[in-house]
């Protein structure tokens, strides 16, 4: 039922209760074609995979400051990824490729496709996901209750890292890249760092730094967040 009409004119209903009927006569809004995501390369950077011994992918809600301070000192920026605070970097002398990703599950499939050419060519891939400690599920939670940060792994190469047990799992680009490499029978290790502080401070970052050094990643021995002056607004 549309809006009541007389000859040549539109009669607007006096009650708002009838307005829903008028909405049926509105033209259907067609969805616009979504823009295809693409890598935004820096000038003079090749758009083909670089020779890579280790492809390290670090993903989390707030990991950019840690990665920039601890890992990217001698790296050059290859391209920006179509996600906030996400980028791809290369350490020439180590043949180390580093993907910094802010967790964005809405575009993780497309981002995985964009990074697959690099994951295919790398000799070894390591993924690290930083998650809140409250997301960890276990019957023995008391064993990690006092740990600021603890790490679990899938196909871990470090004997100190316990296996990630069900029902815990990894998601996002880290999961996509790790699954593809696993199905292709290519060397891959996936780690999850569960922490009380997802933005990572000096103490929370220590186990992560230790892990990275154990698996052959060149990074600083410690991490100190950038000090930001607290707000002077009082209530």
From TrEMBL:
Family statement: Belongs to the PSMG1 family.
Source organism per UniProt: Bactrocera dorsalis (Oriental fruit fly)
Keywords: Chaperone
Name this protein carries in UniProt: Proteasome assembly chaperone 1
Superkingdom, taxonomy of origin: Eukaryota
């Amino acid at each position: 039922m549309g809006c009541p009409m007389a000859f040549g004119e539109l009669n607007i209903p006096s009650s708002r209760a009838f307005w829903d009927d008028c909405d049926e006569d509105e033209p259907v809004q067609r969805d616009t074609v979504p823009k295809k995501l693409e890598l935004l390369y820096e000038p003079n950077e090749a758009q083909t995979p670089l020779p890579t011994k280790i492809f390290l992918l670090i993903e989390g809600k707030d990991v950019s400051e840690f990665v920039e301070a601890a890992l990217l000192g001698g790296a050059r920026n290859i391209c920006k990824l179509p996600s906030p605070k996400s980028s791809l970097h290369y350490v020439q002398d180590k043949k180390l490729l580093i993907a910094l990703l802010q967790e964005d599950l809405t575009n993780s499939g497309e981002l995985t496709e964009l990074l697959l050419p690099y994951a295919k060519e790398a000799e070894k891939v390591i993924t690290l996901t930083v998650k809140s400690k409250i997301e960890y599920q276990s019957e023995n939670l008391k064993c990690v209750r006092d740990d600021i940060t603890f790490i679990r792994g899938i196909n871990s190469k470090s004997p100190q890292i316990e296996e990630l047990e069900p029902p815990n799992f990894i998601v996002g680009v880290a999961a996509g890249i790790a699954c593809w490499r696993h199905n292709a029978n290519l060397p891959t290790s996936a780690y999850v760092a569960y922490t009380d502080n997802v933005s990572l401070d000096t103490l929370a970052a220590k186990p992560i730094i230790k892990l990275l050094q154990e698996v052959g990643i060149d990074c600083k021995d410690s991490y100190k967040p950038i000090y930001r002056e607290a707000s002077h607004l009082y209530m």
